[in-house]
Structures are given as structure tokens and as C-alpha cells.
Design brief:
The chain has about 325 residues and is mainly alpha-helical. About 55% of the residues lie in helices and about 5% in strands. It contains 13 helices and five strands. It has helices at about 20-35, 45, 55-70, 90-95, 100-105, 110-120, 130-145, 160-175, 220-230, 245-255, 260-270, 275-300, 305-335; strands at about 5-10, 35-45, 80, 150-155, 185-190. Helix 3 (about 55-70) crosses helix 12 and helix 4 runs parallel beside helix 13 (about 305-335). Bound molecules: adenosine-5'-diphosphate and tryptophan. The site of adenosine-5'-diphosphate has 16 residues, from helix 1.
Length: about 325
């Protein structure tokens, strides 16, 4: 019998997730949790690089945790925890830094992008505005993954390099200390194809950074307004329309049943269905899909909910594993 494989992923705590995150990350991760050993954590120390307002960070942490639980994460099955609750991660990051070439970090995409922005803006010091948290980001991420001895890391394609770096760093460690202890070399699991990349309300990829996203748990009236604001052309109601170039249709197709989607496609192609009708349908489908989860979300973010207990229980389980790994690593390097 094959040994159980460990799946681990980290989620930055920077604002309420949107329906693109749901389709691209949350839903597949919850499906994986039904079959595998899973650890999902809130990368709150990673978020500290960008979120510098303590109140916002505090509320984002709760919001992201509540989102996962409201979407169906079973905390008995999946270990859900805050990165910051597992201090062994930072100990391992320090050890990994001692075997990581600075040149590797120099080539990291996020760091290079920051330098490119300075260059384009004519700033003489290309490192201006770059803090060490950003520079060290890939090492901390490697520690997150290796400390749980993860085999698979489901992430978006933008994270490919981070996973390669983690595998590289694990390889260096194993080469040096492998007689005593070796990390499993983790593999990335990436979403297939473009089909699951949701467009935002302006037609570009939905992303918090483009401010074109539909947050998961908007109050009903706000959700309705946002859906109505999706730009559409001025094709008259009677005219036939192309569903495949329509943002509201593409969004509908992700959440409606196959029959519903096919029927709506027909109505658009035949003419007689206006963009307004389509947006009403989209609103209804989103509201039906996320309404019950929104209720659970509201309960969970309340100050006296069981959210903190769930995170604490997750942290205790995660720490047990982290401590075991760090003990082996310390012994391997000679600090025991
Ligand atoms: P954002 O671009 O809004 O900041 P992140 O980069 O934090 O989102 O992505 C978190 C997760 O959600 C990743 O796994 C990513 O692949 C997925 N994701 C983000 N945007 C979309 C989208 N528009 N469609 C599908 N999946 C997405
Ligand atoms: N860098 C990831 C992102 O921006 C978040 C993250 C931090 C992560 N540590 C991780 C993802 C470990 C997977 C495994 O989305």
C-alpha cells in the first residue's frame, strides 16, 4: 500500500478571498482534503511584508480563516493553523538560510520585479523600498513546506519558482546532511488549463491587485450592485449574443448547473435575452451558492465564535509535527 501523501498549502492573509480564489484554490483544496493528509495554513508572517496596519492584519487573519471554514474545510480532517503559531518554522528558516546561496535569492521573481520597477522609475538604488522580508520570502516559504515534510504543494502558477527553490534548498540540505536526515523533495500541484482562471468585472484576470474582484461574502445588496456594474456592450436585447466573450456568462458557467448554463447559452445565442437578464441570473446563482456559506462566515468572524479554538487546536497539531522535524534537523546539523 502506498504511504499517505501530505498536501500542504499556505494562504496569504490579505483581505477577504474572492470568487476566483474559490474556484482556483479553495474548492480544489477542499476536494483534495477528502483524499489526502492535508495541512492548510495562514501565512500571516508572509503577509506582514505588505500589510502594515495591525488592525487590518488582525481582521484579515480572521477573515481568511473563517472563509476556509465557511467554505467547508473540516478542521478534524485538515490541520488549519496560523504560521505564526508555529515558531519552529522560523527556527528552520534560519537553518535553511545558512545553506542557501544569496545568488538564488537575487534571481527570485518578486525581488527582481521590485528592482525592475525601480529601474523603470529611474531610481538609482535598485533595492530602494525592498525589505529583507521580501528578499528572504522564498526561504521562509521553503521552511513552511519542509517543516511539515510535505510531498505536494497545491498553488497557483505564479508560485512555480518558489516551489523550485524549495526543492533546491531541500536538495542542498540532503546533500550536506543526508546521512542523518533528508527532507522529502516537494512537488508543486498546479491548476490545469485556462478554464479555471476567472475573469474579473473588467474582463482581466480577477485579482485583488486589479481591484476587479467579487469578494466571496458580500452582503446581498452589495453583491447585486457589483454584478450590475460588470461592463457589457450595447447589443440590443433582441440581438443574438456571443456567450464566450461575455464576462457574466463565463462567471455564471462556473457556478450554475450544466443544464442551467446550456439553457442560458441557448437563450443568448438565439437573441431575446438582454445583458441585464443575464446579470440577474448571475446574481441569483452567486447568491444561492454563497448565501449559506455567508451566514456561517458571519458567525465565525464574530469575536466569541469557535474560530480561535479551531486555530489553536490546529496549531497544536501542526507544532507537534514541526517540533519532530526540527529535532531531526538540529541533530543532523550538530545543534542538539
Ligand atoms: P490575487 O491575485 O487576488 O491576489 P492570489 O495571488 O493571492 O490572488 O491567489 C490565491 C490563490 O487563488 C492562488 O492559488 C491562485 O492561483 C488562485 N487565483 C487567484 N486569482 C484567480 C482567478 N482569477 N481565477 C482562478 N484562480 C485564481
Ligand atoms: N507564497 C504563497 C502565495 O503568495 C503563500 C505561501 C506562503 C505558501 N508559504 C507557503 C504557499 C507555503 C504554499 C506553501 O500564494
Amino acid at each position: 500500500m502506498a504511504a499517505t501523501k501530505t498536501y500542504l498549502t499556505g494562504i496569504q492573509t490579505s483581505g477577504m478571498p474572492h470568487i476566483g480564489n474559490y474556484i482556483g484554490a479553495i474548492k480544489p483544496a477542499l476536494a483534495a482534503a477528502r483524499e489526502h493528509d492535508t495541512l492548510y495554513f495562514l501565512a500571516d508572517y508572509h503577509s506582514l511584508n505588505s500589510v502594515k496596519e495591525p488592525e487590518k492584519l488582525r481582521s484579515d487573519i480572521r477573515s481568511v480563516a473563517a472563509t476556509w471554514l465557511a467554505c467547508g474545510l473540516d478542521p478534524e480532517r485538515t490541520i488549519l493553523y496560523r504560521q505564526s503559531s508555529v515558531p519552529e518554522v522560523f527556527e528552520l528558516a534560519t537553518i535553511l538560510a545558512t545553506i542557501t546561496a544569496k545568488g538564488l535569492m537575487n534571481r527570485a521573481h518578486a525581488y527582481k520585479a521590485a528592482r525592475d520597477r525601480n529601474e523603470a522609475a529611474g531610481v538609482a538604488d535598485l533595492d530602494a523600498g525592498v525589505n529583507m522580508g521580501l528578499f528572504n520570502y522564498p526561504i521562509l516559504m521553503a521552511a513552511d513546506i519542509l517543516i511539515m515534510e510535505a510531498d505536494y504543494v497545491p498553488v497557483g502558477r505564479d508560485q512555480v519558482q518558489h516551489i523550485e527553490y524549495t526543492a533546491d534548498i531541500a536538495g542542498s540540505f540532503n546533500h550536506l546532511y543526508g546521512d542523518s536526515y533528508s527532507f522529502p523533495i516537494p512537488k508543486g500541484v498546479f491548476p490545469e488549463g485556462e478554464a479555471s482562471v476567472l475573469p474579473g468585472v473588467d474582463g482581466r484576470k480577477m485579482s485583488k491587485s486589479y481591484d476587479n474582484h467579487i469578494p466571496l461574502f458580500l452582503p446581498e445588496n452589495k453583491l447585486k450592485k457589483l454584478v450590475r456594474r460588470i461592463p457589457t456592450d450595447s447589443t440590443p436585447v433582441e440581438a443574438p449574443k456571443d456567450p464566450d466573450t461575455s464576462v457574466p456568462f463565463q462567471l455564471l458557467a462556473q457556478f450554475a448547473t450544466e443544464e442551467h448554463t446550456a439553457a442560458t447559452r441557448k437563450r443568448l445565442e438565439a437573441g431575446g435575452m438582454g445583458w441585464g437578464d443575464l446579470k440577474n441570473e448571475l446574481f441569483e446563482v452567486l447568491n444561492t451558492t454563497f448565501g449559506p456559506m455567508r451566514e456561517r462566515y458571519e458567525e465565525l468572524i464574530a469575536p466569541d465564535s469557535d474560530l480561535d479554538d479551531i486555530l489553536e487546536a490546529g496549531a497544536a497539531r501542526a507544532r507537534e509535527r514541526a517540533k519532530a522535524t526540527v529535532a531531526k534537523v538540529r541533530a543532523a546539523v550538530g545543534i542538539d
